[in-house]
Amino acid sequence: MERPSLEINLPDTHEEGKLYVVDSLNNLNKLNVCPDGSQHALDEEENTGDTGENTAGSNIRNQRLFFVTFILTLIISLALVSFVIFLIIQTRNKMDQITSRLLSEKKNIEELKKMNNMILKHLNQSGIKR
Predict the structure, then answer these.
(1) Left, alpha or beta for 128 (phi > 0: left; psi -120 to 50: alpha)?
(2) Which residues cross the membrane (predicted)?
(3) Residues in contact with 123: Cβ distance below 8 Å, sequence separation at least 6, in sequence order
(4) How far apart are CA 6 and CA 19, in angstroms?
(5) Which pLDDT tens digit goes with each residue over 83-119?
(6) Do the Cβ atoms of 54 and 48 come closer than 8 Å?
């Protein structure tokens, strides 16, 4: 009686051994081919069984993320360029104000020089010297 039960259990054990060897080889292959971070992703794909849908979904997600990042970068760049243009215009206005002040002061200085010369001429003519 023990003999038939051994014959029945032996093929089951042999089949289980084959499955164990195949699983071990698959795990070893994953460790050799994939780095540590991608091993976790492969395990998740095996668990879900929908590798094609996950890849397509993550690809679409990556494209959306890239698109959103690209749009945000463009908006920030536009804001920075606008701010620089605003600063340039403000600087130009301040420079124009300073230039106009300098010109008016130059005119005032020239008028003061003329008045000084007139006073000196008048003092020289009146005979008062230092």
Answers:
(1) beta
(2) 65-89
(3) 129
(4) 20
(5) 999 999 999 999 999 999 999 999 999 999 999 999 9
(6) yes
Return the residue matching tokens 């094609």. 52
pTM: predicted TM-score of the whole model, two decimal places? 0.43
Residue 82 tokens, joined: 């606008």
Query: Which pair of structure tokens corresponds to residue 65?
Result: 């993320």
Q: Cα(56)–Cα(45) distance, rounded to whole angstroms?
A: 13
Q: pLDDT by residue (tens digit) across 17-42? A: 666 777 777 777 777 665 555 555 55
Across 84-106, b (16+ Cβ under 10 Å) vs e yields eeeeeeeeeeeeeeeeeeeeeee
